[in-house]
Every structure is written in C-alpha cells, then in structure tokens.
C-alpha cells in the first residue's frame, strides 16, 4: 500500500470507530482486527502503519470527531508529514480543500475534562492519560520467582513484588515462559490493587467482579493455592476465559460463579457472612486506562457515568453482605473521577457504619480521600483508586 492509501484506509477505519463509539458498538482494537483479517493484501508493515495512524489520530482528538477525515485532519495539524499524503491519488484520500474543518483537539469532551479537573486531574496529569502504556508482567509465584526467572528479553523490576516491565510491543505471548504459566500480563497498578487485599493461604476470598480473571490469578498465587477463591461475574463470555488461564497458571483453588444481574445472591447466598476478604474491581468509566483504550473517552456520557456510579454502589453493598465479622473489603476502580473513587467509598462507609477505612501501605500512590490514587504521570501505572474497609 502507498502512504496515501494508508491514510484513506485509516479514515475509513476511523469512520467505523467513531460510529461504534456513538452506538456503543465494537471497540477500536476489534474493528482493526476484523479489517486486517478481511483484507489480507495489507502486509505486516501496512498493518503496523495503519494501526499507528489510527491510534495517533484518536489520541489527537478530544471530543468525538464528526468524521474520520476530520479526525485525520486534526492529526495533520500536529504532524506536518500527514497533509501532503492527502494527494488525491488512486486509493488515496482526496486533497485537502480550503475551509475544511479538522476535529477539535484536547484530552476529552469538555464535560469530562471539567469532571477530571474537579477530581484533581488536569494539566500534565490529564495529558498523561493519553500517553503510551508500558507492558508490565507479573511473575506467577505458583511456578516461579522474579529473582530467578530468566526471560528472552531484558526486563526491569517494578514496584509490585513480582512485577516486571518489558518494552512496549514485546510479543510475550510467544515466549515459553508465558505458555508455561510463569508470567502473566498485568499492569503494575493492577498488581498493587491485589496486594492491597492481602489475601492469605487458607482464607475464603471473593473476587466479585472477576471478568477474565487477571486479578483472580494474582490472588490465587498470593494464597498459594490454599483456601477458597471464588471468581464471580455477570459476563459469561469473560468468565469463561478464566478456566484455561487458571490451568496454565496452575491455579487449582478457583471456583467460578456466574451471576444474574440484580439477583446476584441466588448464586452467592452460601457465602453470605463467610468471606475473609472481598475484592470489588467494579465496572467503571475507565478513565485511568485511556492510554490503552483512548476511544473510551468518546463512549462515555453523563448518563452512562451516573449508571456506573449506581452499579458500583450496588456491588459494594453486595460485597458487604458477604463479609464475615472482621472481614475486609478492597474497592478498586480504574477511574480517576472522584464520583467513582473517593466519593463512592465515602458513601459506602456512610451506608455501613460498622465498617471503617483501613490504611494502605502500598509502594506507589498518593492519598485521595480515604484511599490511594495511582496515576500514569506520578506512578507510571494505569490510573486507579484503591481503598480498604474492615
């Protein structure tokens, strides 16, 4: 493909991504993967170049662009090498005409920028949300130890006890260490969220929003396969991915529970008042993960945020009902909005006065309300709010 043809392809893909964001459709990575699968004529260099163009463009736009072309015109404002590629050639994009309006830049839509600022995330902190995420690994202590593990490529240690960081884009899933379950891909902030729960061998632990099980596997390693570890979620597809991952990791204590939204205690009733610890990694806006999913800014609106805040409160109340007297609850959200973090945790404590905030001794992060906040700028991790109640 010519560079001009790559520009036109990126425009068409961006049109699909914008439409999907407005309609809550497929994420950008899936749209790209499906296009690459259906268009085999695009070689590996073309695929890399198109992917790079698409994600650079998404990061360059704040509000949802009107069209993919307007979005790429915004990128052309920041990169002088882009505009000449609108050359009108065969398979290329038509030349830029006078008066064409590029999409607006910025960190996010205006209402969301304002919400972030009210939550103490602005200027450099906000800009860092659109940087490039590192590639972090967690050494699986059921099978290996960080101090003695040998990898095919250089890695530096992170603040997490078993954390490593390798070059972004490293194909770790092709390593034997990955296929044998010695390592898992997991952001350092996510690893520290698991560390906050302090899961111990022999305990009964519930991962109440387990998803695909990344944190569940970290908890299994912390428990040394001793005790009960229940992974629960309402998403059958995501939860089904846990079994093969657990087998690869050698995590044999995990039980899965598929939950019916609004009727969760039908599947969890036997655990009421029994759990030593409950992890609530609640569904959220994902503002702390924009480095990995920058188009997520375009999917969020105020109505969706309100729905998420309400859902988080419901899940937290469920978690309280699972705790034994003296048990502990760790609330984690990959959002930097106070409505989903510090204020949500304060509301939990107000509804359940038998609980009190417990201090966290994490190697990264700063105090936010009664919890700890991690940010890409300050900590080099995804953005998280983490708090513990007991």
Q: What does this entry look like structurally?
A:
- By secondary structure, the protein is α/β, with parallel strands linked by helices.
- It folds into three domains: 3-106; 134-186, Sun protein, domain 3 (Alpha-Beta Plaits); 189-389, Rossmann fold, CATH 3.40.50.150.
- Helices cover 39% and strands 16% of the residues.
- It is built from 16 helices and 13 strands.
- It has helices at residues 3-22, 28-38, 44-60, 68-78, 110-118, 124-127, 176-179, 188-197, 214-222, 236-240, 242-249, 265-268, 296-299, 302-322, 342-351, 376-379; strands spanning 135-139, 156-157, 163-166, 183-185, 204-207, 228-233, 254-258, 275-281, 323-333, 357-358, 366-368, 371-374, 384-389.
- Strands 5, 6, 7, 8, 9, 10, 11, 12 and 13 form a nine-stranded mixed β-sheet that branches. The chain has a four-stranded antiparallel β-sheet with strand order 2-3-1-4.
- The radius of gyration is 22 Å and the shape is globular.
- The mean pLDDT is 96.
Helix vs. strand class: alpha/beta
Poorly predicted regions: none
Averaging pLDDT over every residue, what do you get?
96
Q: How far apart are the termini? A: 59 Å
Q: How many domains make up the 3D coordinates?
A: 3
Predict the CATH topology of the largest domain.
Rossmann fold
Biggest sheet record: 9 strands, mixed
Second-tier CATH architecture of the largest domain: 3-Layer(aba) Sandwich
Q: How many DSSP E strands?
A: 13
* Helix-strand string: HHHHHHEEEHEHEHEHHEHEHHEHEEEHE
Tertiary shape: globular
Oligomer: single chain
Fraction of residues in helix: 25-40%
């Amino acid at each position: 493909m010519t560079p001009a043809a790559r520009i036109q392809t990126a425009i068409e893909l961006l049109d699909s991504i914008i439409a999907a964001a407005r309609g809550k459709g497929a994420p950008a990575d899936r749209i790209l993967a499906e296009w690459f699968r259906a268009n085999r004529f695009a070689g590996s260099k073309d695929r890399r170049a198109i992917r790079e163009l698409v994600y650079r463009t998404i990061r360059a736009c704040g509000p949802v662009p009107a069209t993919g072309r307007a979005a790429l015109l915004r990128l052309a404002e920041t990169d002088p090498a882009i505009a000449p590629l609108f050359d009108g050639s065969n398979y290329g994009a038509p030349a830029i005409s006078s008066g064409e309006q590029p999409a607006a830049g910025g960190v996010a839509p205006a209402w969301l920028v304002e919400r972030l600022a009210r939550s103490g995330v602005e200027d450099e902190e906000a800009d860092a949300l659109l940087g490039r995420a590192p590639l972090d690994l967690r050494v699986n202590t059921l099978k290996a130890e960080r101090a003695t593990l040998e990898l095919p490529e250089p890695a530096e240690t992170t603040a997490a006890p078993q954390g490593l960081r390798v070059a972004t884009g490293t194909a770790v899933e092709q390593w034997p260490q990955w296929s044998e379950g010695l390592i898992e891909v997991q952001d350092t902030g996510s690893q520290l969220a698991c560390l906050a729960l302090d899961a111990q061998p022999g305990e009964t632990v519930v991962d109440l929003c387990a998803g695909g099980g990344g944190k569940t596997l970290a908890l299994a390693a912390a428990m040394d396969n001793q005790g009960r570890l229940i992974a629960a979620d309402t998403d059958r597809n995501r939860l089904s991915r846990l079994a093969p991952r657990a087998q690869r990791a050698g995590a044999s204590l995990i039980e899965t529970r598929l939950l019916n939204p609004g009727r969760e205690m039908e599947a969890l009733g036997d655990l009421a008042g029994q759990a030593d610890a409950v992890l609530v990694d609640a569904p959220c806006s994902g503002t702390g993960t924009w480095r990995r999913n920058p188009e997520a800014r375009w999917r969020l609106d105020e109505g969706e945020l309100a729905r998420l805040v309400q859902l988080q409160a419901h899940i937290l109340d469920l978690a309280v009902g699972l705790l034994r007297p003296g048990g502990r609850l760790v609330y984690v959200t990959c959002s930097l909005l106070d409505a989903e973090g510090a204020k949500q945790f304060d509301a939990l404590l107000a509804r359940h006065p038998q609980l009190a905030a417990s201090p966290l001794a994490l190697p990264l992060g700063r105090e936010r309300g009664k919890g700890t906040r991690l940010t890409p700028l300050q900590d080099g991790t995804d953005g998280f709010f983490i708090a513990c109640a007991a």
